[in-house]
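Case study B.
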Amino acid sequence: MKTVNHHPDAAMLVEFSAGTLDTAASICVSAHLHFCNKCRSELLRLDQVGSQLMSETEPYAVGEQLFENVMAKIDAQPEDLERTNRLEDVGSSKSTDEYFPLAVNKLIENTAEEFSWRHMSASVDVARVKTGQKDYEVALHKICAGGKTPRHGHSGKEFTVVLKGSFSDEKAVYSEGDFLLREPGDEHQPMGAQNGECICLSALASPIKLSNPLGFLMKPWLRINPM
Amino acid sequence: MLGTKIKIVDDDQTANRPVVLSTEKRSDKWSLLLVAVGESKDRKAFAQLFAHFAPLLKSFAHASRHEGWFPGLSEDLVQEVMIKVWNKAAGYKPEKASATTWIYTVARNCRIDMLRRKSNTQHLPLENEDFWHEPDEETPVSLLRQKRSEDKVQASLEKLPKEQDEILRKVYLEGKSHAEASKELGLPLGTVKSRVRLALQKMQILVAPEFREEFL
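Model:
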């Protein structure tokens, strides 16, 4: 596996481990973890902290019937449920990709027929996914080989994870698994790599602003539409 | 001896099947019991896990200070977690995490999913455990290393100064985000973040500061 160079910061991993990171950010961190060995082992250690803190708590007696209730529920569930392998659920739709993180494929499948690639500009297609939250628009972006995107600034946070291929901006080249955080005020002009299309997962908190005065021609860039 | 595999017979009468594990016997029998549940739906092993973990899970549930959480949900959480433990035990890998850590992650995911189901605004098509995939590891952690790492966490937690211990509890047990903790403690967000990070660096949980960009 290739080395991933850009990671979520420590605070995000801690919140992911503690379960306090918001949904859209969690989706992106999860996608990054799929590619990043380093962050996975860091996360395991963070989970050990949570586990240790939990096991140090003062045990709290449960109701006498609880065990029987749990066993009754277990016995009442259909046999196959116990063995459901969630990974196997994914892959029937043509939009999913075996190399994508599980969470991304699940989102694509869940979006079902509403999942569709639309032109955003000559070189960028976008397909939104349903996530059930309204704070971020979560979508896949496809930049064609060598494709230029308009130079733009961000008025809100944006998380991006490269799922396939690579792209670059003024600062660096980003490839599979790389995690990027754009803060309000950041401005950049991503470009697709020459050697193939690039697919990214992104979660965008609020509309980006085009730096070009003719930006109004690029209306699709100017709003977010969480599904 | 290191790295070789020998058979260990657990002295507990309910798990008297030989279980193949690496050289050092785990100090906790919970991982062995969980393996027994996963392999053969061992009800006695499950009963022992329940007796140990249910009260801890209830206590974990009670510690929650999430908006919308109330104590009445605690036993629901215990039930939901223990049923998941039964159903998912076959996928448990003792060389990756101890039973306690594995059950913690199940509990954490259940707690989030219960909160999401309760709120009307979020109908998440994913369950939190869907974020929790385990791609094929190229470098599997050995049981011994995994265990050492857990022991280290335990020992280093005890040595933390009070304010660092306190903030970790707030984050992990009460379920406060860094931003919420900052409001509650009347500290700037950056201070909360660095206090958490310092604690975790001291514990060698965050081991490679050079690979992290500083965001403060």
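Confidence is low (pLDDT under 50) at residues 1-26, 211-216 of chain B. The remaining cases will be described in the next quarterly update.
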